Amino acid sequence: MQASKVFGFPAHYDETADSTAAGTNGAFNCKNRTGDTITTAAVAALSDFKNPYSTGSSAVRDGSAHAASADMGFVNVSAVDDTITVTTCFQNKCAATTDDVTNEIEVAE
Q1: DSSP reduced 3-state for 75
Q2: Angle, vertex CA 87, rays to CA 1 and CA 25, nearest 5
Q3: Within 13 Å of residue 84, how many CA atoms lie on the same side as its CB?
Q4: How far is CA 70 from CA 22, 32, 66, 90, 103, in A?
Q5: Count of C-beta atoms within a 10 Å radius of residue 39
Q6: First-to-last CA distance in the chain?
Q7: Where are the domains of the chain?
Q8: 63: how many CB neighbours lie within 10 A of its CB?
Q9: CA neighbours within 13 Å on the CB side: how many for 23?
Q10: Digits of tens for pLDDT over the chain (109 positions)?
Q11: Which end of the chain has a smaller Cβ tally under 10 Å, C or N?
């Protein structure tokens, strides 16, 4: 079972300041956040989570490829503007979109 990780805005978060999100080792600037910077920080912060189908690989990765059996078990994180899409393929060698779980997250101001 994977350990859980928490990262987010500090309690003293001020969107006009150059605050950094906890759990990202200072790699994420809250003030200047975009969909791309959030996905990059999430992939970095969750790099020790392993893919159960490919235990030598990190489970969380940047991108949206999930159309082949080699993509099973990965959590794909991608952004277009301020919309983040998280997709995971979990069955049938990723042969159809019904093998995926997909969520979209809007980056709020």
Answers
A1: strand
A2: 65
A3: 21
A4: 32, 35, 8, 11, 21
A5: 23
A6: 34
A7: 46-106
A8: 13
A9: 17
A10: 444 444 444 444 445 445 555 555 556 777 778 888 888 888 888 889 999 998 999 999 998 777 888 889 999 999 998 899 999 988 888 888 888 899 999 887 6
A11: N
State the number of CA atoms in the 13 A half-sphere of 61 facing the CB: 16
**Residue 28 identity (one-letter amino acid):** F
- 88: which strand partners? 75, 101
Name the nearest CA neighbour of 43 among 93, 100, 84, 97: 84
C-alpha to C-alpha distance for 18 and 41, rounded to whole angstroms: 15
Which three-class secondary structure state does DSSP give residue 63?
A: coil
Q: Both tokens of residue 30? A: 């809250």
Token reading at 74: 């990965």
